[in-house]
Amino acid sequence: MAGIWVYAEHRDGTIRKVTFEILGEAKKLAEQKGEELCAVLVGADVEGMASKLGAYGAERVYCVEAESLSGYTTGGFTKALSDLVQQEKPSILLLGATANGKDLSARVAGRLKVGLATDCTGIAVDDAGTLQARRPMFAGKVYAEVSFSDVTPQMASIRPNVLLALEPDETRKPEVIKITPDVKPEDIRIAVKDIMKTGGEKPDLTEAEIIVSGGRGMKGPENYHILEELADVLSGVVGASRAAVDAGWRPQSDQVGQSGKVVTPNLYIAAGISGSIQHLAGMGTSKVIVAINKDPEAPIFKKADYGVVDDLFKVVPPLTEQVKKLKAE
Ligand SMILES: Cc1cc2nc3c(=O)[nH]c(=O)nc-3n(C[C@H](O)[C@H](O)[C@H](O)COP(=O)(O)OP(=O)(O)OC[C@H]3O[C@@H](n4cnc5c(N)ncnc54)[C@H](O)[C@@H]3O)c2cc1C
Questions:
Q1: pLDDT tens for residues 23-54?
Q2: By three-state DSSP, how is residue 89 classified?
Q3: What's the structural domain count of the chain?
Q4: What is the domain range of residue 294?
Q5: Which residue has a Cα nearest atom 26 of ligand 1?
Q6: Which of 55, 158, 188, 282 is deepest in the core (most CB within 10 A)?
Q7: Ligand 1 atom with least separation from CA of 219
Q8: What's the pLDDT tens digit per position in 96-150?
Q9: Quick one: which of 99, 154, 98, 103 has its CA closest to 124?
Q10: Does residue 173 fall inside a structural domain?
């Protein structure tokens, strides 16, 4: 049975935002193709999340449940998802380009022997109903429009924060189908012993709407509190360049860029960051970029929407005060 499927990623009983964003865009594609929009939940106890997927546009939700799927493992989730895809034959399968989504999408595509357009920033279908995907290449220097040959399913992973979720409508009730997967112990070849969380209650960089990032211009770890204060008043999170991470000033989980995280916030403030091609690869699709750098020739200014040529230590603290004042008003 054809249909457009969205893999619903969840963590600690909460569906990740990127899933709703993909559902929002996939709904248009499903209407255009005259197909059903379905979501797939995989885990040990996931049925409780199905109604939320309905509110965000899914007409049908597959709940693939087994005790052995209580935590994410590549082997278990690949087997559960690819078996169901082979059985139901959706025309399109979309996943978030998150850490888990990148891992799972590549494995599922490999298992199904189909192509995969990765880290896409736009999707559409042509008149023949074939998926068209837009994806950045060469560290974001160019965009490629890619299409698919005659394969099923056509698979793509979608960058978080680039598509728009629908307004949730709790009256939309999805059809829920429970599936018991055939996942055997030998399908799960790794054991997750512990998960160490960083960042506390703050959103993950990849899902943050506002990021205040600091680079080598911060001069040392003791100065990052000025970025943390600005991020706090803006309800954002702090990121870093690789130079800051390599110097041991910030944890690796804060790194934005080609070998760090790819982010697409509404606002990205780069303080003391030169704007190397590898850094731009991670934040170049941010909606608004503000650069604070004392060097007017810094490449970041070519990408920035707003630029302040000055010493960040003179600019950031008064900026924080100003935001505080505006919020108090
Ligand atoms: C394979 C590979 C992968 C890489 N991956 C990444 C990646 O994922 N992310 C990443 O960021 N980099 C990555 N890099 C490294 C990248 O090439 C740069 O070296 C790095 O981004 C530089 O970090 P920076 O901008 O903080 O430092 P710099 O390039 O040293 O820039 C510091 C900036 O701070 C400014 N400045 C200094 N003092 C002040 C002040 N008081 N006020 C205002 N401005 C000030 C300077 O004018 C300068 O522009 C990678 C490199 C390679 C080869």
A1: 999 999 999 999 999 999 999 999 999 999 99
A2: coil
A3: 2
A4: 205-328
A5: 215
A6: 158
A7: 38
A8: 999 999 999 999 999 999 999 999 999 999 999 999 999 999 878 899 999 999 8
A9: 154
A10: yes
The verdict on the CB of residue 57 being under 6 Å from ligand 1 is no
**How many angstroms does the Cα of residue 237 sit away from the middle of ligand 1?**
19
CATH number of the domain bearing residue 218: 3.40.50.1220
Structure tokens at 278: 């590898």
Query: 230, 241, 268: which to mutate for ligand 1, most atoms within 8 A of CB?
Result: 241
pLDDT greater than 70 at residue 199: no
Contacts of 263 (CB under 8 A, 6+ apart): 161, 205, 206, 208, 211, 239, 256, 282, 283, 286
Q: Is 54 helix (H, G, I), strand (E, B) or coil?
A: helix
223 lines ligand 1 (CB under 6 A): no
Residue 194 lies in a domain: no
Residue 1 has pLDDT above 80, yes or no: no
Going by pLDDT thresholds of 50, 70 and 90, the confidence category of residue 67 is: very high
Residues 39 and 115 occupy one common structural domain = yes
Residue of 273, 297, 314, 316 best suited for mutating to test ligand 1, as the one with most atoms within 8 Å of CB: 273
Q: Hey, which of 218, 276, 294 would you mutate to test ligand 1's pocket, going by the most ligand atoms within 8 Å of its Cβ? A: 276
Quick check: CB of 258 below 6 Å from ligand 1? yes
Distance (Å, whole) CA 95 – CA 102: 8
Cα of 291 from ligand 1 centre, angstroms: 13
In angstroms, what CA-CA distances link 63 with 41, 44, 49, 113, 252? 5, 9, 9, 24, 34
Same domain membership, residue 243 and residue 176: no
Instruction: Enter the tokens of residue 226.
Output: 């000025």
